[in-house]
Amino acid sequence: MSENTNDAPTMRAISQDTHGGPEVLTETTVPRPAPGPSQILVAVHAAGVNPTDWKHRAAGLFLNRLPLTLGWDVSGVVESVGYGVTLFKPGDRVFGMLPYPHGVGAHAEYAVGPARAFAHTPEGIDHVQAGALPLAALTAYQALVDTAGVGKGTRVLVHAAAGGVGHLAVQIAKARGAHVIGTASAAKHDFLRELGADQVVDYREEDFAEVVEDVDVVLDPVSGQTRTRSLDVLKPGGVLVSLLPGQDPDEAERAAVRGVRVETLLVEADHAGMAAIAELVAEGKLRAHVQKTFPLADAAQAHALGETGRTTGKIVLVVRD
């Protein structure tokens, strides 16, 4: 840790002063935050990079303030705690998601957030693995469990099943006893079968709406025509959970005619959800596939790789050795 002329603690962070391509991301020195009431300060060891990061970098979306440090996934060690925190003590290993979207700031040496956005890191996984999980796993868990009530025998269709959210959703659904169908390119089918997928569909060669039917739940991270056509594979009483806004003006009417519902999910920080994810990890039922890691200083390269759309699983920034 370095100090400025006022002896105020500082830290390295990835920041941007404008919106644009990966090149707008630069490593800089900024003031180190301090935890307020009900908050913890975490020394970040690893932090996931998600599609929402490069979308916010490029266009602002929910966050139009600049300069901006991105990142919501945190794995690290508690440095200090604010007034009223009882769940954690300095030295505890924790992982979690900073409150989405406005609690952003994980792509730095330290991050501060509500204590109840975190959970204790399960034994047996390192910081890279823990840093890959929070946002994507919470998204999958809140979609499948909290929103759709997936359980034993539920037929679940997961689109983009080899992606960051998708490959975790496959595992979470299987852990709850569901029959899981995943869409992905043919090269990723073996990977999905290893995760437990019962059926895989090559979206490049097959029309999923013609080969899949009587589904209880669809998880859709894609939207567009994928969201529109997913209504056709749901059985009455089924639910489509989308992670992006819909584009079909007739969607509500079509859903009503078919007797299904459509939900659009925005992930939320969630201590109970993180604890459930930690339990699945501890039981060996959930693990993130990390395609590549980058040092914090190379965040722009991580964004560029993610934007190719060809990655499997997650990308993680390593902040500390």
Architecture overview:
α5 (189-195) links the parallel β9 (179-184) and β10. α3 packs across α4 (164-175). The model is unreliable at 1-5 (pLDDT under 50). The longest helix has 14 residues, at 134-147. This protein is of the alpha/beta class. The protein has helices spanning 51-59, 127-132, 134-147, 164-175, 189-195, 208-211, 225-230, 251-258, 271-282, 299-306; strands spanning 10-15, 26-31, 39-49, 73-81, 93-97, 110-114, 118-120, 155-158, 179-184, 199-202, 215-220, 234-242, 261-264, 290-295, 314-318. The strands form three sheets. Strands 3, 4, 5, 6, 7, 14 and 15 form a seven-stranded mixed β-sheet that branches.
Approximate strand percentage: 25-35%
Number of strands: 15
Tell me the span between the first and last alpha carbons: 14 Å
Number of helices: 10
Strand-and-helix sequence, N→C? EEEHEEEEHHEHEHEHEHEHEHEHE
Q: Name the helicity range.
A: 25-40%
